[in-house]
Amino acid sequence: MADDTRNILDEVTGKEYKYGFVTEIDTEFAPPGLNEDIIRFISEKKEEPEFMLEFRLNAYRRWLGMKSPEWAHLNIPPIDFQSIIYYAAPKAKKELQSLDEVDPELLKTFEKLGISLEEQKHLAGVAVDAVMDSVSVKTTFSDTLAKHGIIFCSFSEAVKNHPELVKQYMGSVVASGDNYFAALNSAVFSDGSFVYIPKGVRCPIELSTYFRINAKNTGQFERTLIIADEGAYVSYMEGCTAPQRDENQLHAAIVEIIALKDAEVKYSTVQNWYPGNKDGEGGIYNFVTKRGICKGNNSKISWTQVETGSAITWKYPSCILQGDNSVGEFYSVAVTNNHQQADTGTKMIHIGKNTRSTIISKGISAGLSNNSYRGLVKVTKRAEGSRNFSQCDSLLLGDKCGAHTFPYIQTENKSSIVEHEATTSKISDDQLFYCQQRGIDAESAIGLIVNGYAREVLSKLPMEFAVEAQKLLSISLEGSVG
Amino acid sequence: MLLQIKNLHAQINGKEILRGVNLEVKAGEVHAIMGPNGTGKSTLASVIAGREVFEVTAGEVLYNGKNLLEMPVEQRAREGIFLGFQYPVEIPGVSITNFMRTALNEVRKYHGQEPLSGAAFLARMEEKKKLVEIQSKLTNRSVNEGFSGGEKKKNEIFQMAMLEPQLAILDETDSGLDIDALRIVANGVNALRSKDNAIIVITHYQRLLDYIVPDIVHVLFDGKIVKTGGKELALELEGKGYDWIRKELETR
Ligand SMILES: Nc1ncnc2c1ncn2[C@@H]1O[C@H](COP(=O)(O)OP(=O)(O)OP(=O)(O)O)[C@@H](O)[C@H]1O
Ligand SMILES: [Mg+2]
């Protein structure tokens, strides 16, 4: 690598995180630490029914008997679970009736992040659930959606107003003892979003949740549950940011998706938690369990993710393809820079006949970062005539970063076809020079090239998200060459 | 004087490639640079464009009186220097439309102009596409990705037409072109030709110069311009090859 390109790399990768501000807002905390009393405290605060408390305590007891997972390519410093605050909520009046009752500081925070909670300001018509620290602040468009029988509300509200749905589906895709962080989440989760689309209904607008960590020393444990009944369709987007702090903060979320017969769910994420500074100090530990089940025949679940944030990311949005002819898709762009580490990928479990899955993963690494794709494609005996296609590409910017690909393929029947392709490439000096010779500076050139590289995935995002994601990619990376 | 090169020496990895190039190009002129393989023609073009792998060890390059060697690559481009590459590189996933729009707006910004509106940009695309007879099929594709050799060269001329540079250096844009494409490329170049612009064509073949008639022809030999003449020099080279020049140099 030429010296000039190395300089460009250093200059550009030093970009500041622009969502690193802190909102001064009255917050109510639980005391730090984790024990049964804290769990009871959370459940009580949220005025939960008995079944929820039991679910939590059950999960907690399982968690106590579990060990933190160890992955070869993630270097995770030990986490002191007793120093974390498990509940923090912006203090607010009870039962917000209108936007006027929301703390203006909170509104400003979301405005600053480009999320308007005022419905009339929504050009594209996206319904938003805004979650700050542990609590859902405001859900827009709920009334409009209610006309179609669609439920879009915070998880806490769902527990109160639709306990039968919550009871039936919560933990049905990600069991409370599924893994260490899932168990932790199940014990202490505070809020999140809940979506139910009734039979035959096509959700007319994009649904989205915006997660924001604000308070210090807290963990964020949210839970999302999406149920698409027979023949229903919904497109759901999730975004997130956090302030810039020297210490690491833990984010351990669960997302469960259930698609019944002929239903389709499209889930898009732009993950931009604070990644830590240039020297690797601070940043979010993002340990997330996301899984969907195509329960009915001909159902479809599609995950699209753009991962640019977090100090450490550990997540594998997965599909259990149970219904015959069901379809699972995973489109991912994961960017790591400076000292960031990402270990991400998917699991496609083919159970039904003629099930199909597609995996497109684009890893981009710069700085001293490490970026791993880890994916499992499992085709069971029953899943005759199933197909998978996986394409895992890595782009290296600079020569101090790492990219790794770990595909695991298990097929138990001969009538299925599993294809896996992988490539590793670099941005060449020639490409950079070509762009510069046309008047495009190195920074913009790298933004352009990286966006081009990720185009196949970005094109899967809903319009409202795609533009933001493109900018984000350029900002996180502009300027790294191999 | 648009471009003034004085005693330019440049090396790569300690190996001297340019060994005292002198060249003056006035606005309105078309120059042709010829010479055997590996004598430094592309290197000269790269050094003018600012490619940093080549280290300039001596000499001077002035562009409109400004010291070109101090400017970063993109600034030279924004000042109006265009290089048509001998081997255009592929940029997967970046459409020509997007690429050109980014480039054009960067150049405009540099000159204190507003970005072109979408409509104005597309109108310009249409106009220039006609000029070089390329199809939307091509401009919607990623830059050079999977292009044939000839398509790549046409794409270079298309970009030149879009950017309307003041000094265009075309490095073997004619090689790999069929007769029709050659005519199209020449049309593109001749359309750019004006009293304010200058064009340097690097070529091995006299036939290009039938279409783009040069004012001045140079022979670059062993890192130096050893002979300069009118368009008849190209004909002479075509007929006699380079041996007589080599001999001439030896006897000097
Ligand atoms: N990156 C490089 N590393 C090492 N040597 C180089 C490099 N680029 C060019 N050279 C050498 O410099 C010399 C001049 O090359 P250049 O490409 O300028 O020749 P040219 O006159 O354009 O030849 P052609 O007519 O074949 O295109 C050659 O010997 C070539 O091998
Ligand atoms: Mg050459």
Describe, in plain words, how this protein is organized in 3D:
The complex is a heterodimer of chains A (482) and B (252). Chain A has 482 residues and is an alpha/beta fold. Helices cover 23% and strands 35% of the residues of chain A. Chain A is built from twelve helices and 23 strands. In chain A, the strands form three sheets. In chain A, strands 5, 6, 8, 10, 11, 13, 15, 16, 18, 20 and 22 form an eleven-stranded mixed β-sheet that branches. In chain A, strands 4-3-7-9-12-14-17-19-21-23 form a ten-stranded mixed β-sheet. In chain A, strand 3 and strand 4 form a beta hairpin. In chain A, helix 9 packs across helix 10. Chain A is globular, with a radius of gyration of 22 Å. The termini of chain A are close together. Helices cover 40% and strands 28% of the residues of chain B. Chain B has ten helices and twelve strands. With 252 residues, chain B is an alpha/beta fold. Chain B has a six-stranded mixed β-sheet with strand order 6-9-10-3-11-12, sandwiched between helices. In chain B, strands 2-1-4-5 form a four-stranded antiparallel β-sheet, covered by helices on one side. In chain B, strands 7-8 form a two-stranded antiparallel ribbon. In chain B, helix 6 packs parallel to helix 7. Chain B has a single domain (3-33, 51-250), classed as Rossmann fold (3-Layer(aba) Sandwich). Chains A and B meet through helix 9 and helix 10 of A and helix 2, strand 7 and helix 3 of B. Bound molecules: adenosine-5'-triphosphate and magnesium ion (MG).
